[in-house]
Design brief:
Length: 271
């Protein structure tokens, strides 16, 4: 008989880094040791830690933490994309937000990251036909984090929402991969029309603070929407739009505006 090969532990550099950060955080500030152990070091996987955080933050007298944890565990077990998206979101925040110094921070402290992961569980419930429970998750996320993302909305991986106060994403909105947006962004409709009525945001888009994108319009890949703008018409790829109503004011200024986070209009090229 041949020798039995040892069982290999799957590589998970994001989770390994978070655990390293957790030990360093406890060393730096022992008073948060209990919280960090409960949130991170007691868990074998990032998915388990996310389920714990989801349940802890969204529990209420109407639905206790144990039930919410079971719901989220079911979602993560059924759809591996949830864990992949969470890792992409974590890396996006770490790379794009200068206030993020450790991968641990979004998991523990950043409501944008936590709200998006909760939305992802609600979206899974929606796709499974469990719509009342998905609406409950949406309502609790809005109450707790001030972020209102409809569970039917489609949100890609690598999303970074900085500060994340007063974010609204409508029912038929689509957000691509590697998008960055700041606080008070609305992806909304323009009235009482039904069916497909919300924006379709492409990959690599940067949306500035307070911008409103309204109606079933496309925002092209790698474009920029300036802070405070109201976008009512389609935005071509790789352009910058600004104003009320927004108009094209130049090129996007770089290949990947969502990654560079450059929001200065003076950096745009000419048409």
């Amino acid at each position: 008989m041949g020798k039995e090969l040892p069982r290999l532990t799957p590589l998970d550099p994001v989770w390994d880094r978070i655990k390293q950060d957790a030990h360093q955080a406890i060393n730096d500030e022992p008073l948060i040791g209990g919280m960090v152990h409960a949130a991170v070091l007691h868990h074998a996987t990032l998915e388990s830690a996310l389920c714990y955080r989801f349940a802890l933050k969204l529990s209420s007298p109407e639905m206790d933490a144990q039930l919410l944890r079971e719901i989220s565990e079911e979602a993560y077990a059924a759809d591996p994309n949830l864990g992949e998206a969470a890792r992409a979101d974590l890396v996006a925040i770490f790379e794009r937000d200068p206030a993020c110094h450790r991968l641990l921070q979004p998991l523990l402290f950043f409501k944008g990251f936590q709200a998006v992961q909760a939305y992802r569980v609600g979206h899974w419930l929606w796709t499974e036909g469990r719509r009342d429970l998905a609406y409950f998750i949406q309502a609790r996320v809005s109450e707790v984090f001030g972020v209102d993302i409809h569970p039917n909305a489609v949100v890609g991986k690598g999303l970074m929402i900085d500060h994340a106060h007063s974010i609204v994403v409508g029912e038929t909105a689509v957000v691509g991969n590697n998008v960055s947006m700041l606080h008070s962004v609305t992806l909304g409709g323009t009235g009482k029309e039904g069916h497909d009525r919300h924006p379709k945001v492409g990959d690599g888009v940067l949306i500035g603070a307070g911008a409103k994108v309204l109606g079933n319009i496309k925002v092209g890949n790698c474009s920029r929407v300036a802070a405070g703008s109201v976008v009512l018409q389609e935005v071509p790829p790789c352009k910058t739009v600004a104003g009320v109503p927004a108009r094209i004011v130049g090129e996007a200024g770089c290949d990947q505006p969502a990654l560079s986070m450059d929001q200065i209009l003076g950096s745009v090229g000419t048409d």
